[in-house]
Amino acid sequence: MRNFTIQGVTIPDDAAYKDVVVIGNGPSGIALSYLLAGNWPYYNGAIHPDEMLTARLSGAPPGRSIVKQDLRFLSQGLEGRSNNPVSLLMDTLNHPCADLGLELPSLLEWHHHPECQVDHIVLGKGPPGGSWQAMDGNILTISLGSWMELPGVDFRAWEAAGNTGMSSGPTSSRDSRASVSSLARYYYDYVHNQGLAKFFRNSCVVTSVLPLDTSHSQNKETIDPETGVQHCEPRALWRVEGFDLSDGIPFCYICRRVVLATGQSDLPNRLGVSGELNNPTWVLHDLRSLEAALDRLVEEEEGDREGVPTEPRCDPVLIVGAGLSAADAVIAARFRSLPILHVFRKKAGALGKQLPENMYPEYHKVHQMMGDGGATYPCYTALAEHRVLEISSDHKVCVVGPDNVASVHRVSVVAILIGSRPDLNFLPPGLGLGRKPSEPIDCRSNPIDVDPYTHGVVRAPPGMYTLGPLAGDNFVRFLQGGAVAISSHVNKELQHQTVL
Ligand SMILES: Cc1cc2nc3c(=O)[nH]c(=O)nc-3n(C[C@H](O)[C@H](O)[C@H](O)COP(=O)(O)OP(=O)(O)OC[C@H]3O[C@@H](n4cnc5c(N)ncnc54)[C@H](O)[C@@H]3O)c2cc1C
What we know:
By secondary structure, the protein is an alpha/beta fold. The chain folds into two domains: about 5-265 and about 420-495, FAD/NAD(P)-binding domain; about 270-420, FAD/NAD(P)-binding domain (3-Layer(bba) Sandwich). Helices cover about 25% and strands about 25% of the residues. Strands 3, 6, 9, 10, 13, 14 and 25 form a seven-stranded mixed β-sheet that branches. A five-stranded parallel β-sheet has the order 16-23-17-18-19, with helices on one face. Strand 13 (about 240-245) and strand 14 form a beta hairpin. Helix 4 (about 85-95) packs across helix 10. Residues about 165-175 and about 230-235 have low confidence and may be disordered. Bound molecules: flavin-adenine dinucleotide. The site of flavin-adenine dinucleotide (FAD) has 35 residues, from helix 1, strand 7, strand 10 and helix 10.
C-alpha cells in the first residue's frame, strides 16, 4: 500500500472518501442514516395541541420538509425532558403530549427523495442496534415500546406482524413496554427493510479520528467521466481509522464530516477496589454475563441436589448498586431462587419511585425488598449504606457499613452494576468537548457541548457532530431530533457546495 501525507497526517492510498462517517450503529446512527439516505420528515397538517407550534408549522410553504426549514424558529419555546430544542420538536411531533400520558398519533409523514441521498457510512462494533444487541434480552424497557421506534416504522405494528419470534399472549399495561430482545430484532430489521444495509459496516472498531490540517490544501476538482461535468469535492477534514473485527484488516475513511453516535454504555463504571479486575470469571460488570453465570450456578446446584428440592446451598450472589440494572440483577437471581447479598451506598433510595407501580411492579418489589431487608424473600439480605472494600480471589468480599464496621462475606458471583460511561478514546486527547471542558464526558452531568440547531460539536474542529446520549439525549424518543439537526445542516451545506 502506498501512503501520502496531508500536513503530517498519513493517508493510506486505499482510503475511501465519504461525505459523512457515522461512528456507532445504535438507534442514533440508524436514525441518522435513514435521514441521510434521503428520507425526510413532513408535517401532515393536523392540529397540534400546542397552538403556537401549529401556527409555526402551518406558516411554512406547502410541501417543505422540516429538514429544509428554520429549526430554531420551529422549536422555539418548547419545553420537556431534553435540553436540545430540535429533540423536543421531533418528540412532540412524533408523540404529542406524551408526558401528559396521552397517546396521540404522530404529526409526521416521511417521504423518500433518492436525489437527496448523502454519501455516508455507519461504523459499529456489533450488528445494527448498538447497545440493544449487547443487553440482556429478557429485560423490559423503561419506556413504552412506541417511544423506542425509529422514523417511519411503527414498533407495535411491526411486532403485531409477528416479527418478534414470540407468541402473543394476553395483554397488560406491562405489555406497553418492549423486551430488549424484540427491540434488538426491530433495529436490525429496520436497517435491512429500509434499504440502509448498504450504508453499514458492522463488526468493526474505530480506533482513531483525527482532524486534518487542510489550511494549505486546495479543494479537489474531478470530472465526471460520463457527463463531463466538473465537480468541486469539498476539502477532507477528518481521517477515521479502525479495523474489521472478523479479520483484523484495517480501514481508513477520509471525510468532511464525522458524527459521534457511540452512546454511553461502552465502559462500565468500576468500584476501583482491590481484586475487582483480577477475577473476571466471577466478578462481572454487565447483566448479560451475570445471567450466564447465574445459569451455571443453577446447573451446579441442581447437580448437587440430585433432583431433591432443598434450600439453595451455594454462596450468595453479591449485587452492588441501587439503580435499575442492579434491580434487574436482583430479579434475575431471585427468579433462579439463588441467595442474594445486595450492597448499596444509600438507604433504600428512590429506585422506581417515579415509575408507576402498575407498569413497573418488578422494580417496586425490589425497592420494597431493599427497604425491609427482604422480609418477603428470605434468601435476600440488604446491606444498605455499605460499600465494598476488597474482593479476594478466594471468593471473599470485605464490606464496610455506616458504623465503619467491616465484615467479610463468602460469595459465588459478584455483579457490580453502577452505571457506565462513553468510550471516546479514539479521539485526540485534550479536546475538552464537554459543557464543562475540563471534566470527562458524562452523558448526564457533562454531555458534549453542541450547537442546539445543527448538533455540531462546539469545541471541535469544523465538521464534527454528535447526537443521542453523547449530546445529553439519553432516551431513544429524543435522538431523532439530533438526526434531523445534523442532516438538515449537512443538506444545507451540500446545497451551497460549488458545482463548477
Ligand atoms: C440497561 C439499559 C436500559 C435502557 N433502557 C432504555 C429505555 O427503556 N428507554 C430509552 O429510551 N433508552 C433506554 N436506554 C438508553 C438507550 O440505550 C440509549 O439511549 C440508546 O441506545 C442510544 O443509542 P445510540 O445509538 O446513541 O447508542 P448505543 O445504542 O449505545 O449504540 C452505540 C454503538 O456504538 C458502538 N461503538 C462505540 N464505540 C465504537 C467504536 N470505537 N467503533 C465502533 N463502534 C463503536 C457501541 O459499541 C454501540 O454498539 C437504556 C440503556 C441501558 C444501558
